[in-house]
């Protein structure tokens, strides 16, 4: 009952100068709103990257060949071919727990159909590639193991490439020329959209890797291999077995550098989202400064309020109020200011996030944790920055306070 009466007194005191109250809470409102909006932007960016990683497929392990150094600079793993067809066959044959393996041969090529042509990416792959990458076939069929063995001139075509070459017509059964070699389209790939690097994944043509190596690139080695584990639980074990098998096949002894790199989908996701995590923390920290500024504003106004109400404090002390009652009164006023600012700031943050998503096209993801933390932090700021003015009021001498003009 006493606490409720104290809140009523605090509310009455804040209503005496409503404009000052609004201006004081403005710092907290902006701070809480900014924290929620900035964290929502960061979480949205992270979720978008994770969604793009998920398009790679499930339980995927990527094997990259060795690197090459040019002009004193390392070009990175995948820049030099060290993975052979025998390595690919050995993985399929000797590593348990694998549900699919596919090599990847990439090249750019001019593709023509009728009087239309386009320069796009051509990938040589195995029959497991579509399943590994969770890539549906919207029309037609996948090519077969027999097609791979005989280096057949068949192809799967991406949605963007198909639209450019054939418009709205079904491309299945039609002929395209890749570097002057005729290939028959056996399947139309489902739409994948943009990759995390910003490229159009549907602007592609997939052919058997044997056809790509024999008819398009002349390569005899692979830059990368895609492996899919049977389930998430066996991914670490499969990764270990792959590494061990390639060490044995490439005769890499203890202490020698690997000429390949094995990365799981989780590792790729962690690396890709690291920047988003840093950005989220940075944006949240910058926005958090607004909360501190708002707290300083609360302390400033509460000190002014103590000075203005010195005689009131003296009267209350003279009629029997205890120092802790005065402390509680002013502390509750400060906390009330910060809580009101926090509640309005939460609404502002949610609305701002929605508007940014609609107007700017940014993906935002409002986290309940960020709302709880921002609100709790605003309450803590009220207590922290309100304690000193409240303590100053509680320690006033009643006689001096009554004499104050």
Written account of the structure:
A six-stranded mixed β-barrel has the order 4-5-10-7-9-8. Strands 2-3 form a two-stranded antiparallel sheet. It has 13 helices and twelve strands. About 3% of the residues have low confidence. With 405 residues, it is of the alpha+beta class. It folds into two domains: 179 residues, no CATH class; 176 residues, no CATH class.
Backbone CA Rg: 33 Å
- Average predicted confidence as pLDDT: 80
Gross morphology is elongated
What helical percentage do the residues reach?
55-70%
Secondary-structure element pattern, one letter each: HHEEEHEEHEHEHEEEHEHEHHHHH
What profile does the largest beta sheet have?
Answer: 6 strands, mixed, barrel
Tally of DSSP helical segments: 13
The total strand number stands at: 12
Query: In terms of per-residue confidence, which ranges show pLDDT below 50 for 5 or more consecutive residues?
Result: 68-78
Distance between the termini: 33 Å
How many structural domains can be distinguished in the coordinates? 2
Annotate the secondary structure layout.
Layout: H1 2-15, H2 18-54, E1 60-65, E2 69-70, E3 73-74, H3 85-94, E4 98-113, E5 116-125, H4 129-132, E6 137-140, H5 145-149, E7 154-157, H6 159-166, E8 175-178, E9 181-189, E10 204-208, H7 209-217, E11 224-229, H8 235-249, E12 260-264, H9 265-308, H10 310-318, H11 323-359, H12 368-394, H13 398-403
Parallel strand pairs: 5-10, 7-9
Antiparallel strand pairs: 1-11, 1-12, 2-3, 4-5, 4-8, 4-11, 6-9, 7-10, 8-9
């Amino acid at each position: 009952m006493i606490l409720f009466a104290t809140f009523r007194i605090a509310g009455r005191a804040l209503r005496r100068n409503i404009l000052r109250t609004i201006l004081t809470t403005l710092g907290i409102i902006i701070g809480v709103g900014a924290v929620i909006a900035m964290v929502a932007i960061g979480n949205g960016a992270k979720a978008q990257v994770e969604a793009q990683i998920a398009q790679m497929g499930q339980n995927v392990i990527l094997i990259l060949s060795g690197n090459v150094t040019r002009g004193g600079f390392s070009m990175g793993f995948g820049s030099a071919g060290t993975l052979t067809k025998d390595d690919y066959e050995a993985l399929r044959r000797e590593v348990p727990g694998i549900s699919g393996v596919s090599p990847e041969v990439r090249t750019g090529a001019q593709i023509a159909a009728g009087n239309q042509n386009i320069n796009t990416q051509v990938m040589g792959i195995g029959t497991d590639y579509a399943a590994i990458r969770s890539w549906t076939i919207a029309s037609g069929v996948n090519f077969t193991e027999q097609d791979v063995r005989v280096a057949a001139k068949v192809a799967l075509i991406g949605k963007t490439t198909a639209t450019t070459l054939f418009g709205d017509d079904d491309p299945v059964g039609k002929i395209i020329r890749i570097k002057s070699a005729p290939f028959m389209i056996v399947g139309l790939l489902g739409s994948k959209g943009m990759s995390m690097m910003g490229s159009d994944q549907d602007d592609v043509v997939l052919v058997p890797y044997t056809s790509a190596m024999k008819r398009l690139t002349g390569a005899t080695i692979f830059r990368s291999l895609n492996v899919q584990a049977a389930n998430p639980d066996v991914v670490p074990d499969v990764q270990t077995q792959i590494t061990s098998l390639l060490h044995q096949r490439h005769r890499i002894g203890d202490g020698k550098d690997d000429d390949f790199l094995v990365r799981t989908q989780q590792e790729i996701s962690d690396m890709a989202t690291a920047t988003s995590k840093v950005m989220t923390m940075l944006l949240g920290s910058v926005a958090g400064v607004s909360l501190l500024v708002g707290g300083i504003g609360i302390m400033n106004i509460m000190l002014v309020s103590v000075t203005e109400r010195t005689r009131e404090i003296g009267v209350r002390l003279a009629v029997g109020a205890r120092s802790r009652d005065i402390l509680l009164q002013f502390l509750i006023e400060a906390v009330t200011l910060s809580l009101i600012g926090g509640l309005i700031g939460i609404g502002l943050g949610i609305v701002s996030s929605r508007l940014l998503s609609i107007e700017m096209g940014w993906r935002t993801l409002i986290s309940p944790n960020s709302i709880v933390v921002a609100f709790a932090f605003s309450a803590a700021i009220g207590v922290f920055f309100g304690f000193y003015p409240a303590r100053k009021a509680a320690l006033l001498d009643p006689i001096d306070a009554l004499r104050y003009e």
